[in-house]
Protein backbone atom coordinates (compact mmCIF):
# COMPACT_ATOMS: atom_id res chain seq x y z
CA UNK A 1 0.00 0.00 0.00
CA UNK A 2 1.27 3.47 -0.78
CA UNK A 3 1.92 5.68 2.23
CA UNK A 4 -0.21 8.80 2.66
CA UNK A 5 2.20 11.67 3.11
CA UNK A 6 -0.29 14.54 3.34
CA UNK A 7 -0.80 16.17 6.71
CA UNK A 8 -4.22 15.54 8.28
CA UNK A 9 -6.74 18.35 7.99
CA UNK A 10 -7.51 20.29 11.17
CA UNK A 11 -10.20 22.70 12.35
CA UNK A 12 -9.86 26.06 10.63
CA UNK A 13 -8.46 24.63 7.37
CA UNK A 14 -10.09 25.51 4.05
CA UNK A 15 -10.95 23.03 1.30
CA UNK A 16 -12.10 25.63 -1.23
CA UNK A 17 -11.75 29.34 -2.01
CA UNK A 18 -15.08 30.47 -0.56
CA UNK A 19 -14.32 34.19 -1.04
CA UNK A 20 -14.09 34.20 -4.86
CA UNK A 21 -17.45 35.21 -6.35
CA UNK A 22 -17.86 34.47 -10.05
CA UNK A 23 -21.13 36.30 -10.72
CA UNK A 24 -22.12 39.85 -9.86
CA UNK A 25 -24.22 40.32 -6.70
CA UNK A 26 -27.70 40.80 -8.14
CA UNK A 27 -30.10 43.11 -6.29
CA UNK A 28 -33.79 43.58 -6.99
CA UNK A 29 -35.04 46.64 -8.78
CA UNK A 30 -37.84 48.47 -6.95
CA UNK A 31 -41.05 46.43 -7.02
CA UNK A 32 -39.49 43.14 -8.17
CA UNK A 33 -40.96 40.02 -6.58
CA UNK A 34 -39.88 36.48 -5.82
CA UNK A 35 -41.81 33.33 -4.93
CA UNK A 36 -40.38 30.15 -3.45
CA UNK A 37 -42.75 27.17 -3.51
CA UNK A 38 -42.41 24.05 -1.39
CA UNK A 39 -43.94 20.67 -2.20
CA UNK A 40 -41.59 18.75 0.06
CA UNK A 41 -41.78 16.96 3.41
CA UNK A 42 -40.08 18.40 6.48
CA UNK A 43 -36.98 16.43 7.52
CA UNK A 44 -37.01 14.26 4.35
CA UNK A 45 -34.13 16.10 2.72
CA UNK A 46 -32.20 19.34 2.75
CA UNK A 47 -34.20 21.25 0.12
CA UNK A 48 -36.78 22.59 2.58
CA UNK A 49 -34.13 24.30 4.68
CA UNK A 50 -31.98 25.31 1.70
CA UNK A 51 -34.82 27.09 -0.04
CA UNK A 52 -36.00 28.83 3.13
CA UNK A 53 -32.44 30.18 3.27
CA UNK A 54 -32.74 31.12 -0.43
CA UNK A 55 -35.98 32.97 0.35
CA UNK A 56 -34.20 34.88 3.12
CA UNK A 57 -31.43 35.82 0.66
CA UNK A 58 -33.94 36.91 -2.00
CA UNK A 59 -35.69 39.08 0.58
CA UNK A 60 -32.40 40.65 1.65
CA UNK A 61 -31.55 41.36 -2.00
CA UNK A 62 -34.64 43.57 -2.12
CA UNK A 63 -37.19 41.24 -3.70
CA UNK A 64 -40.71 41.28 -2.27
CA UNK A 65 -40.51 37.60 -1.38
CA UNK A 66 -43.22 35.08 -0.58
CA UNK A 67 -43.06 31.42 0.39
CA UNK A 68 -45.87 29.08 -0.69
CA UNK A 69 -46.29 25.88 1.34
CA UNK A 70 -48.60 23.37 -0.32
CA UNK A 71 -48.98 19.60 -0.39
CA UNK A 72 -46.38 18.13 1.96
CA UNK A 73 -44.75 21.57 2.11
CA UNK A 74 -47.20 22.60 4.82
CA UNK A 75 -45.23 20.34 7.17
CA UNK A 76 -42.45 22.95 7.11
CA UNK A 77 -44.76 25.53 8.69
CA UNK A 78 -46.38 23.61 11.52
CA UNK A 79 -45.38 24.05 15.14
CA UNK A 80 -43.39 21.18 16.54
CA UNK A 81 -41.25 20.32 19.51
CA UNK A 82 -40.75 17.75 22.22
CA UNK A 83 -41.62 17.43 25.02
CA UNK A 84 -43.38 20.77 24.50
CA UNK A 85 -44.06 22.79 21.35
CA UNK A 86 -41.05 24.97 20.67
CA UNK A 87 -38.58 22.65 22.42
CA UNK A 88 -35.76 21.22 20.32
CA UNK A 89 -35.65 17.45 20.79
CA UNK A 90 -32.36 17.28 18.83
CA UNK A 91 -29.97 19.79 17.23
CA UNK A 92 -31.63 21.28 14.16
CA UNK A 93 -35.13 20.23 15.21
CA UNK A 94 -36.37 23.84 15.01
CA UNK A 95 -34.46 24.85 11.84
CA UNK A 96 -37.62 25.26 9.77
CA UNK A 97 -39.49 27.23 12.44
CA UNK A 98 -36.51 29.39 13.34
CA UNK A 99 -35.77 30.32 9.73
CA UNK A 100 -39.40 30.87 8.74
CA UNK A 101 -39.75 33.18 11.76
CA UNK A 102 -36.58 35.02 10.70
CA UNK A 103 -37.93 35.32 7.12
CA UNK A 104 -41.29 36.69 8.30
CA UNK A 105 -39.54 38.97 10.80
CA UNK A 106 -37.64 40.51 7.89
CA UNK A 107 -40.86 41.20 5.97
CA UNK A 108 -41.31 37.96 4.00
CA UNK A 109 -44.77 36.45 3.57
CA UNK A 110 -45.58 32.77 4.07
CA UNK A 111 -48.76 31.09 2.81
CA UNK A 112 -49.95 27.55 3.61
CA UNK A 113 -52.66 25.56 1.81
CA UNK A 114 -55.60 24.73 4.07
CA UNK A 115 -56.46 21.58 2.08
CA UNK A 116 -53.02 20.04 2.57
CA UNK A 117 -53.00 21.14 6.19
CA UNK A 118 -56.26 19.41 7.09
CA UNK A 119 -57.03 16.76 4.47
CA UNK A 120 -53.49 15.45 3.98
CA UNK A 121 -51.76 16.02 7.32
CA UNK A 122 -54.55 16.27 9.90
CA UNK A 123 -53.65 19.73 11.19
CA UNK A 124 -55.70 22.88 11.61
CA UNK A 125 -54.80 26.52 11.27
CA UNK A 126 -53.78 26.73 14.98
CA UNK A 127 -50.95 24.28 14.13
CA UNK A 128 -49.27 26.84 11.89
CA UNK A 129 -46.42 28.99 13.11
CA UNK A 130 -47.73 32.45 14.02
CA UNK A 131 -47.55 34.77 11.01
CA UNK A 132 -48.22 32.15 8.34
CA UNK A 133 -51.33 32.96 6.31
CA UNK A 134 -53.60 29.97 5.56
CA UNK A 135 -55.05 30.00 2.03
CA UNK A 136 -57.74 28.12 0.12
CA UNK A 137 -56.55 25.34 -2.18
CA UNK A 138 -57.70 27.39 -5.19
CA UNK A 139 -55.33 30.16 -4.07
CA UNK A 140 -52.28 27.95 -4.64
CA UNK A 141 -52.48 28.26 -8.42
CA UNK A 142 -53.55 31.90 -8.30
CA UNK A 143 -50.59 32.77 -6.06
CA UNK A 144 -48.24 31.25 -8.64
CA UNK A 145 -50.04 32.91 -11.57
CA UNK A 146 -50.00 36.35 -9.93
CA UNK A 147 -46.27 36.05 -9.35
CA UNK A 148 -45.78 34.87 -12.94
CA UNK A 149 -47.76 37.89 -14.23
CA UNK A 150 -45.49 40.12 -12.15
CA UNK A 151 -42.42 38.53 -13.81
CA UNK A 152 -41.28 37.33 -10.39
CA UNK A 153 -38.32 35.09 -9.79
CA UNK A 154 -39.95 31.74 -9.01
CA UNK A 155 -38.13 28.82 -7.40
CA UNK A 156 -40.31 25.68 -7.50
CA UNK A 157 -39.30 22.90 -5.14
CA UNK A 158 -40.72 19.41 -5.58
CA UNK A 159 -39.53 16.26 -3.91
CA UNK A 160 -41.15 12.87 -4.20
UniProtKB/TrEMBL annotation:
It comes from the Bacteria. InterPro entries: DsrEFH-like, MSMEG0572. This is MSMEG_0572 family nitrogen starvation response protein. The lineage of its organism: Bacteria, Pseudomonadati, Pseudomonadota, Alphaproteobacteria, Hyphomicrobiales.
Amino acid sequence: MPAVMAEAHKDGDYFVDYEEKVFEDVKAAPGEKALVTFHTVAFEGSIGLVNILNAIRLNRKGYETSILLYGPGVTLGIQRGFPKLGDAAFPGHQNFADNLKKFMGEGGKVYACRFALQALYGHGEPSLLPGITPIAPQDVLDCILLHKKANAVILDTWTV
